[in-house]
Amino acid sequence: MDEFEFIRRLRGKANRTGLPAQVLTGIGDDGTVIRPSPGKDLIVTTDLLIEDIDFRKKETPPDVLGHKALAVSLSDLAAMGSTPRWALTSLGVPKQVWNTEFLDRFYDGIFKLAERYQVKLIGGDTSRTPARIIVDTILIGECLEGKAVLRAGAKPGDLVYVTGELGAAAAGLRLLNRGADPTPAHSKEARDAAIERVMRRQLRPEPRVGWGLVLGEEHLATAMIDISDGLSSDLHHLCEECKVGATIDRAKIPIDEAVKILCGRRALDPLMLALHGGEDFELLFTVSPENASRLPKKVDGVNASCIGQIEPASSGVRLAEGSSVWELEALGFQHFKN
Amino acid sequence: MDEFEFIRRLRGKANRTGLPAQVLTGIGDDGTVIRPSPGKDLIVTTDLLIEDIDFRKKETPPDVLGHKALAVSLSDLAAMGSTPRWALTSLGVPKQVWNTEFLDRFYDGIFKLAERYQVKLIGGDTSRTPARIIVDTILIGECLEGKAVLRAGAKPGDLVYVTGELGAAAAGLRLLNRGADPTPAHSKEARDAAIERVMRRQLRPEPRVGWGLVLGEEHLATAMIDISDGLSSDLHHLCEECKVGATIDRAKIPIDEAVKILCGRRALDPLMLALHGGEDFELLFTVSPENASRLPKKVDGVNASCIGQIEPASSGVRLAEGSSVWELEALGFQHFKN
Fold it and tell me: What ipTM does the predicted assembly reach?
């Protein structure tokens, strides 16, 4: 059983008696939509980060960890098209970390990112751990009643978009793990700049809060998910929820330039990082053809690329290159592989 | 720095620009009160449980862990006088635990308790850990606008109450750690029943949801906190928030009968367990003298005892026995002692 099967099973159990009227979505989206009062919906999301699984202490300064902990939840709320409002942080640390500058710097990272989006830290919990740091971030956002963008909702014919560029976060992780490949085709300056960029994309992801808001408020996206596991896996998640297929055009996938510079062509294919790498925290969304012209060119300086279209479920999820079409497998990140 | 100093500092930082209108309480109460829309308030709380700190796997069956994870958060919401509604569970487990019956049984424990209070599991996160299980439970409740009961609000002259009996959860923990003391004064049957009771109080705490609702809806409690750290520490927390003192009458503290049976008088003083033991998850609350007669005798079969009264801050927090009065130190549980 992988974690996605697990989530399906849990959703079945949790929803076996049906969802109460106030719960619009249960388990299985980027966040959960509840409607405590008419007129406004709340979206809740939670994200665990575990030392030595999701980050390593030696390469993640405390403020960077704080930034990332909040950024991944901001990305989830962006993928629901909602405005982030309130955060809670549950933090477990070993005794030897407690009385150090870690705590102040960790919260500095949270506060700095929170202020940028006017998010308020309103609570949390602290605990000792026998070893290793763990962080659980809870984020609550809001949107007008019925305006949340779910993973479900795309129809055959809808266009598939992705914000920004892909592959750099995964390239950053590989740099951390293995160091850079020799790439004599590029200057030292170009390589240094590329290294700086992929490390930043890995360690300090920028959630696409502005894009999420535009897509939600203007009712432009028919379905949306953030790319945390990888384009291939997250496209599969979206298609499953929508009960559709999709065809992605290989030539249209926006691969980060820094990834192309750093990947020795024979050592590592930049396309593989862009397709399966994960942690880019870009938004993957679908738009009906008649609304495509209403999409903004850029939001907060970030553009969006049309990379394919939604098909009937029978087509499956596919990658097209010229006249060739292959099945696109979900090869992104999983915590528990079979 | 202990964790309470840490929370004070964090609260100062989080609130240095003031609380936005929608946040009624920030960090530092049992839960946080937000008002997304007029007419109704939401209360959010989160609780971390870490293996080998908050529980040991060998003596905590998975369903019992699920029960406890939700129960501690239900207790927080009860202490805010609110109705629990929606839960999210973040769960981190090592790979060797993943494909076992642990997951199903853990969620069985959650679902069973959730159904009793009509709480809906609406989301969460799962992650792998290198070792040890960690659980973070997020619970959202609601109440009518302005009806949440905070830790602050008690005034000198208010009476201090506690629900149920104290000390059994701590006695259960000591039984787990050290085994039972010889207590020849009691029959084997009485001792077996007492052991069963204190183990249940330690492993399967019963949140006082009904009492919390009555005290909140009827506006009976002027301040409230749940006893998770211990009566002495939690009374100190409440008095700090209210900027008052309190005097507790030793003779009126409801000590669990099972604790008296199990504590060899010279080995362990039942009163010490009742005062400082923690994890009883009873409610500690204050009531103005004119409202005392409106308190119900019992809620869900559990009574409440008047154990003392609120004094001016200058009196400090004290324990009275006959004509003697001592300072009552906060000797309850702390994750990070100085």
Answer: 0.88
Domains, chain A, in order of start with CATH, read 3-144 (3.30.1330.10), 159-327 (3.90.650.10)
The β-bridge relationship of strands B244-249 and B317-321 is parallel
Judged on CB neighbours under 10 Å (0-12, 13-18, 19+), A265 is: exposed
B31 touches A at CB < 8 Å: yes
How far apart are alpha carbons B54 and B56 in whole angstroms? Answer: 7
Q: Which two tokens stand for residue B245?
A: 């003192």
Residues of A in contact with B136 (CB under 8 A): 46, 48, 90, 125, 136
For residue A131, give the 3-state DSSP assignment.
coil
pTM of the model: 0.91
The two tokens of residue B337 are 């002692």
Q: Which residues contact B301 (CB under 8 A, 6 or more apart)?
A: none
Q: Which residues pair with A125 in a beta bridge?
A: A90
* Better-predicted residue by pLDDT, A136 or A24: A136
- Give the whole-angstrom CA distance, residue A41 versus residue A43: 7
Q: What is the pLDDT at residue B338?
A: 47
Q: What H or E segment, with its residue span, contains residue A241?
A: helix A231-242
Q: How many residues does chain A have?
A: 338
In the predicted model, is pLDDT for residue B15 greater than 80? no
Confidence band, pLDDT 50/70/90 cuts, at residue A320: very high
Q: What is the distance in angstroms between the Cα of B81 and the nearest Cα belonging to chain A?
A: 17
pLDDT digits (tens, 9 = 90+) for B65-104: 999 999 999 999 999 999 999 999 999 999 999 888 999 9
